[in-house]
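Hello Y.,

Per our agreement to keep a running log of every chain we model this quarter, I'm adding this entry. I've kept the format consistent with earlier entries: sequence first, then predicted structure.
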Amino acid sequence: MSPETMSAAENSVAEDRGYRDSLTKIEPYGIEHIPDVERHGKPRSQFFLWFAAGMNFPIVVLGFSATYFGLPFWAAVLAIVLAGVTSSAGMGYLSAMGVRLGVPQQMQGRGPLGFIGNLFPVAYVNVFAGIGWAAVTVILGGQAIALLTDIPFWVSSLILMGIQLGVAVIGYNLIHFLQRILSFVLVVGFVFITIVAAANGKVVNTANESAPGFDGIGGWIIFFGWFFSFIVAWMPFASDYSRYLPNTPGNRRGAGWATMSGNFVTLVWMGILGTLLGSTTTASDSIGALKELMGPWAAVGLGVVALSSFTQNFLNVYGGAISIQTMGVPVKRHTAVVFICVASYLVALWGQTGFNSGFTAFLNLTAYCIAPYVAVLVCDYLFGGRRTERGLRELFDKSRKFEWGFVAWAAGVVLSSPFWMSSIYTGPIAAAFPQIGDLSYYVGGAVAAGVYFATHRRKRLSGLEMLDRSAAAQTL
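Predicted structure for the entry above:
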């Protein structure tokens, strides 16, 4: 794409800054379109990045909750596998979109929602999620270090956050490099934990009707939804880590499959491990359960948990910083990283107690807003003419305040709210029919897609002419 083509849009053209594959240079790009001269990397990098991020204890926490619902082992495994297939496939497609468009996922939302319209989901879902997920992971890692060393939690969590800040400031290339190394290190650690858990644990294949959350098929649907929403929560960030790959059909396909595989393998593995932990220990929390089950090897298990906190938080902090820039806040990416880290550390100190219940409530509330958002992004990418040069330019046009995609997203959120099922808020339909489980994600996504198709041919809210949606115009 020539500079002349892109010149009409603010900050849409990024010159060659010599970043390439440097591991020590601070990444000079933020939300700008990555120029062809800076495109580098292989699709397999997406596997290692997401594999390392998924090899993390929050997924084990979700698996641990199978005991709360009284699910038999086979039913829990089925829910985890089905959730992994469906949600990971979505992540793979969004990753391929990043290769083609060369901009972060949240920036793509400016297309169908408009600049102001996109602020609502980005401010709540992405910035809030970036801070919240980083705090969640620091809590788990900090607790593990505190149990290992007896040092105060505020010190252990500060150490973790300091390292994560340094890596996220340097940015994209170093994150990919460290995720690849940590993939090999953590796979050894989690294989060891899995072997010990399998040797000391037991598989319970009968339903526990006396469990506090037992509700038959409804409990299974909720459990499925928690695993589904874990990957959904990553979806607004998928393109952030593939946007530097050269835009070729092979790279788009490769990035999609690699992203899907990395997410699926770890979600299933860590989820089943958590289910095994929950069914074989007397501890009431997942970290305590791990320590109990590992016995004399507890130090190794807790050390692996502490190390795994880095792989997810590199992405949480980096993605949160991109979100701040997407909102139009005039700061450099590395400055936004510092803000996200400080905020996450403070939230971790505040939320270190009562973690498990708060974690699931937080996970649900963010996913309720993300599912309609992703539905609108994918519809716009496929049917809205976004894969054109003008469609890309529009992402940087702040004069487009609102578009019909914002209406579709808002309708998805509002009309799914009666189905919400959370300790913070339970909708009237979910309260009246708990046996049907939590259907919020699917209702929200379906409503948003339906409203998009009902409005996307209407005159645009910005008043601009329609994008060219013909097959010949899709040149990106």
